[in-house]
Write the structure tokens for this entry.
Amino acid sequence: MALFSPRRAPAPAVDMSRLPRHVAVIMDGNGRWAKRRGLPRTAGHAAGAETFRTIATYCRDIGIKYFTVYAFSTENWKRPAEEVSAIMGLLNQYLREAIEKMERDRIRLHFWGDLTPLAPELQALCRETGRISEGYDGMEVNVCLNYGGRDEILRAARALAAECSAGLRCPEELGEADLSAHLWSRDVPDPDLVIRPSGELRVSNFLLWQSAYAEYYFTDVLWPDFSKAEMDRALAAYQSRSRRYGGVDGR
Ligand code: FPP
């Protein structure tokens, strides 16, 4: 049982035939989880990485096709060097382990964000894991790394502007699909469900363009305590919603 968490009601039943195709998670609350235990923040990130493994595996087992996590934002460089280095170390460790498991599980691994400020060794590992998983047909895991939603949209706008000034495109003819095609997420359907644990009610620059019509699930549970039962609660909440995309559903 999770320490310091309020007792939770039993997880509701999930209709496995109506799962979201794409689930995205802001893995928040690692620092508070560690602080409550008198541990360094880095211990919270290590516990958060373990939760990532548990929940990614659960998503794969139940048949979710796309799982995207916010691992490090363009703003997270402001954290103490020791904490940044611990997060990069955990990613390094995860990618090394993933190489062994990806083939067995046919997992596709992609990275969304500008990887160039990362250590050359980590960049190489990201490229290598991405290359190995090309052509696999299992769940796709997208790790947002040095990622920011505004940065992503700005880069896409710059690329379109360059194409227009080179005479390759006409600004009046550009549509939403043209901008989507220049995002890190190109070829991936928009998230259906975005989960933010830890009690914060913010979007924090995560998938700003892609989550225009996503359903949000907020919970006070801290990410290291986020369990399969909590995932079921998020999925059941998603299934209880009526997605109208600005239209009406006749209720
Ligand atoms: C936010 O919690 C968490 C992060 C900025 C880092 C998340 C990174 C990992 C879990 C590392 C490994 C990732 C993978 C994919 C293996 P916070 O530190 O802001 O928590 P707080 O709000 O309680 O301080």
User: Anything to note?
Assistant: The chain has seven helices and six strands.
